[in-house]
Design brief:
single chain; about 100 residues; alpha+beta; two-stranded parallel ribbon; two-stranded antiparallel sheet; 2 helices; about 40% helix; elongated
């Protein structure tokens, strides 16, 4: 009963391999490459970007860049006379959602 019993096939173009290496002083012995899979240093799973050391720094950088773009858009809307509750509604719909919740 393997992969062929249920007619399942791995889509190698949408799959990749990441080797998790927690920081230690020992040298890392990498396992052999899996055929048809690319090995990556970071991966996005459920909307969160992890590096090969399980560090979320790339994710924080991405969220910060998105927040900066949203903040710029809010400043532009404010300069075009959008203010009060309407500006707050736009900020809540874009910037606050981005900063408060994990994106799935």
């Amino acid at each position: 009963m393997g992969q062929n019993a249920n007619n399942l096939k791995l889509n190698s173009s949408k799959s990749c391999e990441i080797v998790v290496d927690l920081p230690t002083n020992k040298p890392l012995n990498l396992p052999p490459l899996v055929p048809n899979l690319s090995r990556v240093d970071q991966i996005t799973a459920l909307g969160i970007t992890f590096s090969n050391t399980l560090f979320c720094g790339p994710h924080v950088i991405l969220i910060t860049a998105k927040a900066a773009a949203s903040f710029y858009a809010l400043k532009t809307l404010k300069s075009h006379c959008l203010s009060g509750p309407a500006l707050w509604d736009v900020a809540r719909a874009t910037l606050l959602i981005l900063l408060c919740f994990v994106q799935f």
